[in-house]
Each structure stands twice: as C-alpha cells, then as structure tokens.
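1st attempt posting a full record on here, be nice pls
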Amino acid sequence: MSQSAHARSFAPPADTGGRRNLVGLSRQEMEAEIAGLGEPAFRARQLWHWIYHRGATDFTAMTTLSKDFRARLADTHVLWRPQVATAQQSQDGTRKWLLRLPDGQEVESVHIPEEDRGTLCVSSQVGCTLTCRFCHTGTQRLVRNLSAAEIVGQVMLARDALEEWPSPAEGRQLTNLVMMGMGEPLYNLDNVVKALKIVMDPEGLSISKRKITLSTSGVVPMMARCGEELGVNLAVSLHAVTDDLRNELVPINRKYPLADLLAACRAYPGVHNARRITFEYVMLDGVNDSPADAHALVRLLRDIPAKVNLIPFNPWPGTPYACSTPAAMDTFAAILMEAHLASPIRQPRGQDIMAACGQLKSASQRPPRTARLGDAPVALEKEKPLPAGAAEEGL
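the predicted structure (as tokens):
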C-alpha cells in the first residue's frame, strides 16, 4: 500500500480549560485525585479499569460510575492522549504515526507486526539528547523530555488504531514494547519508569516486563536503577569495538567508555544466561564490519550473557554512511555464531515510510529560551528539568 493512501490530517487537541489529565497518573496519584473530589478509593480502581483496560476516551462511557460523578469528572479532568498528525503504512505492514503533543511538538511511534508478535517502538524524548552519527534522530537537537502521559499515550494510541480495546488476553496485535524510538530513555528515566509501571500493571495495559526492552546508548549511571526499578530487558547500542571508533559513532562514549559500559552490563540486575543483554550493532560498510571487528566483539562480550542484533544500516538523506554488503554481514554473523553468540541479522522493516531503525525524526525544534519561559498552549503536565548531564551529549 502506498503511504499517501494512509495519510490522515491533523486535528488539533482540544483546549483542556485547566482540567487535569488522568492518563499518566500512577495509582497513588489517581487515588489522591479522587480523594480530592470526596470519593472513596475504589472509584480510582474503577477509573483505572476504564482508562487502561477498556480504553475509554469519554467519561460518559464509564457506565459503572454514577451520572453525577461522571459529570463532575468531565468538569475537572480529561482523558488525553497524543493526536495523530499523520499515519502511514508500509508495504510490509509496518505502521508509523507522527503524533502531535499539547504544546505542538511532535514525535513518532512505530508498530511492527510479525507472525508471532506485534512490537510497538515508543519514543521518550522530542528530538534526542545524543548525536549518534549514523542515526537520523540524532540530527534533531533535543527539544524536551516526554511526560509519563505522553509515553503511555503512545501505547494507548496504538491500541486505538489496532482496535484492541478492551485489552485482549490472547491474540493481541500489540504484544511487545521497545523503548527504541526518538530519544535516550535513561535521560528521562523518572517519566519512563512511571509510564512503564502503568503499562505493566496487570489490571490495565498488562504488557509483561519480559515483553519490554529498553534501549540505551550507554548512560552508565542510570543502568542499575533501570534494572532495579523496572526489571525490563536491556538493549545496548554498541556499534563499535574500540573507544576511538565508538567516540565517533556514539559520542556519549567519551563520557562513559567501553570498559565502564561493559562493567555496567555485567552488573545489570537479573542478567543471566537465560536472560541476556542485547547488543545492537549497526552494520556500516568499511567502518565496523570487518572480520577483525567481529573477533574483537567476541572478545569484548566473552563474559557477558549476550546476544547481538546485527542491524543493516538504514539510509537517510544526507548520511555519510552506507550499509555493509550482504557478504560482509554474513561473514560477521558467522564469526559470532561460531563463538556461540546468537547474532541474527535483523530484517529491515518500514523503510519505504522512514520507519526503520535509526530513521525516526520529527520537525520539532527547541524554541529560543525566551519563548520557553511562557506557558505551553495546552499544558497538561509541567515539564521537569533535564537531569544533570543530559543536555545534548556529544555536541
């Protein structure tokens, strides 16, 4: 199918009139909201069910609540999720959504269907903190972190599009979630943790932590906390076997070099032979794809429970890199396999709509500081400052 056949125009989000968004609140926060209205705690559990199990977008649909309470909620609160600016579908079934946020900024999410699963690729920032040289997202300067509501909202929007409300127990089209979209999740860890705990809640969206993978370019100080608080699978964007080359490809390596990164991987909570760390390795022609690189990679990972995803480079306008040849990738994979390192060569998906790994980007730009001092047009949640060290690594 052509992408133009699947494009949809953007409908601006409605002005909330100062009403508070219930989407993205933790259970404790939702109970506090309801207590503030003079209602018992069980009302919060009912709301949780309607929002995250049934996908309600309107309080009038919540028929287990009294009409009076529903009317009061509509006066004081909203059920907001990102608005679709455009929707595209690839010839291979991959779907990409450009999502408009309350302040007019935009991010992208991607759903990748497979025979035995359906994976949603979720963004954590508008733009990216990092400047990885081979990544299209990295050419977009960081605008801001996403709130928990904006992260959870991507999952809910995908459920809308896939018509998966109420949340099905079996036969889901959305079974897995990867924090591999725009942004570095560990530089927005507070909001990512809050959002993923909502996503994992068994009485709502109910996606198991075993089905969730968080990808990092190597924010070493945050890795242990991720494992301790979330227990999700970890993927590390490695892409090079020497500090010199990784400094060029993944500039955060200048701050957290390979030795520190691999030590953090060995210490990642819950890692063992049955639950390995995934190392992502983009295949760049003549850059990092030689047999010598493959042997060096084996040595680097020899004492870490690991698998390696070999990612054919997905080109984008203006990139200086090219994808490794099929022969080079096959040789590289064979060396890893001979050393008993699982090393599948990933099949690119959604290339015709720029939805493949490393291709996501929006047109959002960070406004001048004076413009940022004013209120957002539809501010549903006050933006938190970026953590120390998170401001555009590598620039």
